[in-house]
Specification:
Length: about 325
């Protein structure tokens, strides 16, 4: 068994409308699925991605209108990377972020790649990373109707950054249970801390974890601008059941099999309390909508369909 790379990442937002405005109008991502949190249907669950929301391109958000601001710290998924095709694309994005008054740090180098660190409108930490020299997991395809130039568009999730006070137990789970390989380290210049890099599958920008070791930080308090969980790609449902068996054998408490309709999953926490998910590549977002109309209407899994009217009445319409 081998995890194929990053599947999706789910973060927190206070306003679905403001979230859609930023991620579609500024970053040019496609809203590929407008649905609800299946565990709490009173809140939106928004999925952004490439042209069809391929696995490895999905950035998702739960809307909680009264949620407080995230307090950055330890035991967290601390930064989310978004892949762009090449170094030239970063020059385009540097100009575009400046044009939209998005705070960013300009083009810098990180682990041998050019990147642009920046924050969204709710202070979520993000990085645009160039695929100029990527030799690992391939990216997706930017949406041709993007409000940003598709030639330079976002094509997937890049390295996901974790921040922990002690790497030892996390590294044990990541390598011995999940099968990641330790491939290098670098110094994170702003704080001077060490970052350890792990990869899975074919490796590259779409299959890396960058773990920051920060014993000096307090635990994070999750809020808007924070990240709830990260999911990793599993080939199919049969293999997912094998992963669940491995988690049980490793005595890692987990959710057991969960059917999310668009993919099948299992959830568990690594020793520093960070929530991981393993999710199948299929069946995908065209299960209940055709490719041309993805994200245009409220999509509900079959078990919630009979409550559509009740659910819809509790959600504010989104203009986009």
């Amino acid at each position: 068994m081998e995890l194929l790379g990053i599947h999706h990442l789910s973060a927190m937002t206070k306003s679905a409308q403001e979230n859609v405005d930023f991620y579609t109008k500024v970053l040019g991502m496609r809203l590929v699925k407008k649905t609800v949190n299946q565990d709490d249907p009173s809140m939106y669950h928004l999925f952004y991605g490439d042209e069809v929301g391929n696995p490895g391109t999905e950035l998702t958000f739960f809307e909680i209108p009264r949620i407080g601001q995230n307090h950055d710290g330890n035991n967290s998924i601390s930064t989310t990377s978004l892949r762009v095709p090449n170094d030239q694309a970063l020059k385009y994005w540097e100009e575009r972020l400046t044009q939209f008054d998005v705070k960013h740090e300009g083009i810098v180098e990180q682990f041998g790649r050019l990147v642009i660190p920046f924050r969204d409108h709710e202070q979520q930490r993000l990085i645009l990373v160039s695929d100029e020299h990527n030799e690992g997991v391939s990216g997706g395809t930017a949406w041709e109707h993007s409000k940003a130039d598709p030639q330079h568009g976002i094509v997937g999730l890049g390295p996901i950054h974790l921040t922990v006070p002690d790497i030892e137990r996390t590294e044990t789970v990541v390598t011995e249970v999940m099968g990641f390989k330790r491939v290098g380290t670098y110094e994170f210049t702003p704080a001077g801390n060490e970052v350890v890099v792990f990869e899975t599958g074919k490796g590259g920008t779409g299959a890396e974890l960058h773990i920051h070791v920060r014993p000096d930080l307090p635990p994070e308090r999750l809020g808007r601008g924070g990240v709830h969980h990260v999911a990793f790609r599993v080939k199919n449902e049969e293999e997912l059941h094998q992963w669940i068996e491995r988690l049980n054998q490793s005595k890692l408490g987990n959710s057991g099999f969960v059917d999310r309709y668009y993919f099948k999953s299992v959830y568990f926490r690594e020793p520093n309390g960070i929530l991981f998910e393993l999710a199948t590549d299929g069946p995908g977002f065209t299960t209940d909508e055709d490719e041309l109309n993805l994200g245009e209407t409220l999509a509900l899994p079959p078990f919630l369909e009979e409550k559509r009217d009740e659910i819809s009445q509790k959600l504010k319409p989104i203009d986009y």
